[in-house]
Amino acid sequence: MNLRESKVALPEGRPGPSVQEVLARDSRPAPDVLRFESPVEGLGSDDIAVERYFDPAWHAREMDLVWRKVWQMACRVEELQKTGDHVVYEIGDESVIVTRTASGEIRAYVNACLHRGVQLRTEGGCVERFKCPFHGFTWDLDGKLCHLPSPWDFAHVDPEAFRLPEVKVGVWGGFVFVNFDPACEPLESYLEVLPEHFKAFRLEDRYKAAHICKVLPCNWKLALEAFVESFHIPVAHPQTTSYVAWDTTQYDVFPGVRHVNRMITLEGFPSTAVGEVDPQETIRQMQRDVAFHAKSQIEPGERQFVRDQFADAAREKLSRSSRRDLNDQSNAEVVDAIQYFLFPNLVPWAGHGAPICYRFRPYRNDPERCVMEIMLLFSKAEDGSHPRPAAPHWLEEHEGWSDAPQLGSAGFVADQDTENLRRIQRGLRATHKPGVTLANYQESRIRHFHHTLDQYMGVKP
Ligand code: FES
Ligand SMILES: [Fe+2]
Question: Looking at residues 346-361, what average pLDDT do you find?
């Protein structure tokens, strides 16, 4: 895994110091998995056709060729703690009930009554069996029919064979994934390098402390793309540039890897683009925006000194709030934005300092609307205990992310993005240019995403 010695061609012209140079000087060094970079190679510079952001025909093909083929995160394991706990996961027309059976297995059933098709569950909860609200056909948690009303009238139904159909389920990192394709590749190979990378980060030791959902007026890919690059930060989020080093962000697309990429954006000192910043200003703004730095004692000094102090303060506060000793965490894990992507729509962050996870998917069957979800995955206590996982909280159309106090300053930042997303969707409808043009390096994760999307869609590059 340690590729520090490997010869990669670094992006020419990228400002410094590089993420790797800073991590090498940190008072607590980052794990090996963060100590190398892998800039994109060989994906070209072609524009991305705008139709894929609104064309209903493209959307319908995406449903068949992507969403019905990929492994997708349906919920967290801790939401299925007890027998009968279940979550309803929906994508396009598909709907499944993901549940914990009496034997402790996790299964996913197609959410439709086998009598006349009624949706068995409209939301999650805990039940002993799944009873249809129409005529009362009932299935147990193993998917077996356990009540058939008027059996004399259903001589043509074999109760043994009348089982709820299942879709595939897999678990990794405390996430439950489903796959609608019975012939799909195993989750283990689908995840590629992700499990190896996350050995250091152990998301299975987290629990979902917040879960905020919002329907956005844009295609799901536009929302996703706005959250996997730091290039927009100085213009869209100017309030952060004295403590977010957006312009030295490292973007990694790993050779031969289809489903995973990552970026690392350093925090705790300014971007080079804003020039000389009084360290007091960095300290003031970080204490304003990042809750666990609010009352920390940080002495002004040279950049690395300030960053190291932020890391010390974060380790202490995170250990206290999580009832887990996080003092062995590197500076990067408690200060920086370490963000991974799993195709097609999951964006788990690795560190404890920004314990975020995004999920993006189409809203029903509308190519011009999507659901964006922001989850916070906090550390479980040392003994594995944790509060009840947060249920999804849906924001109303008129509400912003800032109306969810759980998100802290991240809510304000996401509102800035949301406003842009509305405008991107409209702009792509209005434009006379057939494609969007991407930066070769800073938007390489978006290009990589489309490259993989093309493979699923059968589009020739
Ligand atoms: S539709 Fe479900 S019991 Fe009749
Ligand atoms: Fe943003």
Answer: 97
